[in-house]
Fold this sequence. Notes:
The chain is an alpha+beta fold and 520 residues long. Helices cover 58% and strands 16% of the residues.
Amino acid sequence: MKHSIHPIIKKEETEESVKKLEKKRHSIRGELLFSFIGMTIAVLISTWVINNLFLENYYTIKKQNVLIKTYNQLDQIIAMYGPDADIINEEMQVFGAENISLILLNQDWETVLVTNNSSERLMAGRLYGYLTGIDKSNDTVIKRDEYYTLQKTMDMKSQQEYLEMFGVFDPAYVFLMRVPLDSIRSSVKISNEFLAYVGILVIIMSILISYWISKKITKPIMELTELSKRMAELDFDAKYSSGGSSEISLLGEHFNKMSETLEMTISELKTANNQLLQDIEQKTQIDEMRKEFLSNVSHELKTPIALIQGYAEGLQECINDDPESRDFYCSVIIDEAGKMNNMVKKLLTLNQLESGNEKVFMERFDLTALVRGVVQSAQILAQQKEAKIRFSQTEPIPVWADEFKVEEVVTNYISNALNHINYKKIVDVKIKTKPDGKVRVSVFNTGDPIPESDLPNIWDKFYKVDKARTREYGGSGIGLSIVKAIMDSFHQKCGAINYENGVEFWFELDGRSKKEEADE
């Protein structure tokens, strides 16, 4: 059973939504470029339209103000100094740049002052016509008060439009000032033409500048876009590298921090997920082992319980009244009960070892003496099976281990060897010291080798290679499991080797002294 952590949104839905956005999206660079250029063109067109519509009127108003200002200044001069031509000419030089023509007449219609001699008669005649009412031309009056009149008129002779002011300076003098408006229109036209040329140049410059600015702005944005895409694909090696001190650079730094945080978080999630999978698999294995254990125990107990029940019922019903039959029935019951008791003890021992509740007392003892004692104890069983146990080691070999548990391992190996012995019926027990300081104990018995397919499984609980033979001598399939559990508690190795004429079981212990370990 496998579990994994899934995101809330499916990957396929996310990819599809991203593709839709990519189809609809527009380039930021293009948008910025067209926005800058469009804004520049709009400003230039607006300026050109305003020039055409309002610049002429603006110039006209400015000229009106100049004429009014000139009148006020001349009125003060005449009031103070009279019609002094030198002073007036000197004052009028100030307005020469404004292209103003002036004629000043006295009460006898004699010319007192004129600034443009070529138009003296024309201006004198027009002034006379205005003041006497003879001139009936359709002029546009702009402003009129008791001292002067400001108007716009068309000179039919020169076919030019003028801005004129006529009236009186003191009751003794009359005047006429005029300025041509064609120069204003010409200036507006030139201004618009110049603006058009400048506009074209500005548009070209704005395109280049806008392209450069948009590229500079969009480059870090595109880098952030690519960075976010790679982050979405869980590639956290991508980092923002454009630098800078703008808000986009700050955003890039935050992207880098977010990338590191996400990588760390996903790593923790994967670790947790992996641990969860391991816990689930371990729980599944434990459940399977529990089921297998119950099945094996039930199977192992079924036969002795059935025999005990059957022979006990036979005794109860007095099937055979002779003492020999009763003794036989009782022997079977005792034997089967002993087998069950032995299996239960082994299961309890194995359970203690596998759960880690069994304490291991490490001590230094003579392994040779221990093995010799077990061999001597097994001589009775060897004689019953007409077998021979050979052990020639005499020199003491000190090792570090739990002496009681090592004795149980040696006993299991020798008992297992005697139960599976065949042919020459020889059991060879040897002790060998290895160059790395390990001491290997091996127990070899002649007989049939273990099938290679069964060799890895012989250490499992209740596993039996030859079930009929195991049942014959009362084996439960737990002995080698206890050996494996004991060696694991020592953190040492054990194993089995097939030969043509038999099988060798071995285990290793640490034979080095504490001083030798410290020297290493």
